[in-house]
Amino acid sequence: MSSNSRPLKDLTIDNITENVHAINSKCSDPRMRFLLEKLVTHIHDYARETRLTTGEWETAIKFLTEVGQTCTDVRQEFILLSDVLGLSLLVDSIDHPKPPASTEGTVLGPFHTHEAEHAPNGALISHDPDGEPMLVVCSVKDTNGMPIPGVKIDVWEADSKGFYDVQHADREGPDGRAVVESDEQGNFFFSATVPVAYPIPSDGPVGRLLGVLDRHPYRPSHFHFMFDKPGYDKLTTALYLRGDPYERSDVVFGVKESLVVDLGLVSEVTGLAEKHGVSPSTRLMRYDFVLVGDDEVNELRHEKAKEAMEKQGIEGMHIVNGILVPK
Predict the structure, then answer these.
(1) 198, 223 in Cβ contact below 8 A?
(2) Residue 240 CA from chain centroid, whole number
(3) What is the chain's Cα-based Rg?
(4) pLDDT-derived band at 7, boundaries 50, 70, 90
(5) How far is residue 325's CA from residue 128's CA, in Å, rounded to a whole number?
(6) Which residues lie below 8 Å from residue 170, measured CB to CB, with a gap of 6+?
(7) How far apart are CA 103 and CA 96, in angstroms?
(8) Helix (H, G, I), strand (E, B), or coil: what is residue 139?
(9) What confidence tens digit (pLDDT) does each residue in 208-259 have?
(10) What would the mean pLDDT of 62-91 be, rounded to a whole number?
C-alpha cells in the first residue's frame, strides 16, 4: 500500500463501504470500477438493512457454491437462478430496447446449446414419436416492413414430456433444435412438435430455492427463437401458447402479451398442406418477426441511459455505446 493510501483499520459497519470503494478505486477500467462500486454499495446496504447474520451469510455462500457445482456444459444453473429472480429478463430489456412494432425479446433459458445442426427450410427438427406434429411458418422483416433474407435463426424446444434433448442421458445427438435461415422473401419454415408446459429442473439448488419460496417450478408451453444477422440487433425471444395454465405465472417471468399466439390448423390455409407435404390436421404456428437495426437500437440505448441518469440523479458520467461510464 502506498504512503498516501488510507489505512484499512478501525473498520466499522458505517465506514467499511467507503474503504472498499477507496481500495477498488485503483481499477484502471472506469466501467468495471463503476460496476463494482454499485455492487459493493448495494450488497453492503442489503446486509445492513436486513441485519444479515453469519449463519445466513454461510447459507448463501453454500447455496451459490452448489449452483456453480451443478453447472455443466449442457446445464447452466446460474442462468436458471438469474431467470427465477427476474434478472435475465431485466438485463435483456435494458440492453435490447425495442421501438414500437418490433418483436420483443425474452429469456434465453438454461438449455440453449451451440451444437444445433443447420437445417434447410422445411426440415423436421423434432423426432419425438409422442409429440403432436406442428408446422412453423414465419417471416422476418425490418421495422420498415422489408423482408430480411439470410438471417440465421436458432430454434429449440422441449419434447412432449417437457424435457430438452440435453436432459436425456442416452441421447445420441441434438434433437428438437436446429439452425435455419430466412429465404429471399424473409420466410422460414420447418416441422416440429407442439410445445408443452414443463417444470424447470427441481433437483438442484434453484429448485430447492423455489420450494422454500413456495413457488411452482413451471414454464408455460413455448418455442424458442434466436435471430442473428450483421447490422441488426440480436433477438432472443420465444412464442407462448395462449390459454396455457402457466401463461400468467411463468417461473422465469418470460411471457409478454405480444409473444402469446394461438395455434391453428394447416387446413385453415388453402394449399398449405400440399405445399409443405404435411397432414391438413397438423397444428400451425405462424408469426411475423420484426428485427431492429443496430443504429436504431444504439440510439434507443443512449436515450434510455440518459433517462436513467436523470431519474436516478446520477452525475459525472459519459454514455458510451449506451452504457454509463465515469468521466
Answers:
(1) no
(2) 14
(3) 23
(4) low
(5) 49
(6) none
(7) 11
(8) strand
(9) 999 999 999 999 999 999 999 999 999 999 999 999 999 999 999 999 999 9
(10) 95
150 conformational bin, left if phi > 0, alpha if psi -120 to 50, beta if neither:
left
What 3-state class would DSSP assign to 34?
helix
- In degrees and rounded to multiples of 5, residue 156 shows phi and psi of -160, 155
Alpha carbon distance, N-terminus to C-terminus of the chain? 25
Residue 291 burial (C-beta neighbours within 10 Å; 0-12, 13-18, 19+): buried
268: phi then psi, degrees, rounded to nearest 5:
-75, -15
Q: Where are the beta strands (DSSP E) in the chain?
A: 133-141, 152-156, 177-181, 187-193, 198-199, 218-219, 222-228, 235-241, 260-261, 264-265, 283-290, 317-320, 323-326
Can you give the pLDDT at residue 6? 58
Q: How far is CA 227 from CA 117, 173, 197, 244, in A?
A: 15, 23, 23, 25
The single-letter code of the amino acid at 120 is P
The residues pairing with 136 across neighbouring beta strands, listed in sequence order, are 190, 285
Which cell is 139 given? 417471416
Contact assessment for residue 42 and residue 34, using Cβ atoms and an 8 Å cutoff: no
Reading the block at residue 318, the C-alpha cell is 459519459
Q: What angle do CA 188, 96, 321 make, to 5 degrees?
A: 125
Question: What angle do the packed helices 54-70 and 205-212 form, to 10 degrees?
Answer: 140
What's the rounded Cα separation, in Å, for the pair 50 and 46? 6
Of 1-10, 126-135, 148-157, 215-224, the poorest mean pLDDT is in 1-10
Q: Helices in the chain by DSSP H: which ranges?
A: 16-24, 30-50, 54-70, 77-84, 87-95, 205-212, 272-276, 294-312
Residue 1 has pLDDT above 50, yes or no: no
Number of Cβ within 10 Å of residue 179's Cβ equals 17
Burial 86-122 (b: 16+ CB within 10 A, else e): eebbeebeeebbbeeebbebbbbbbbbeeebeebeee
Q: List strands edge to edge, sheet with 264-265.
A: 187-193, 133-141, 283-290, 264-265
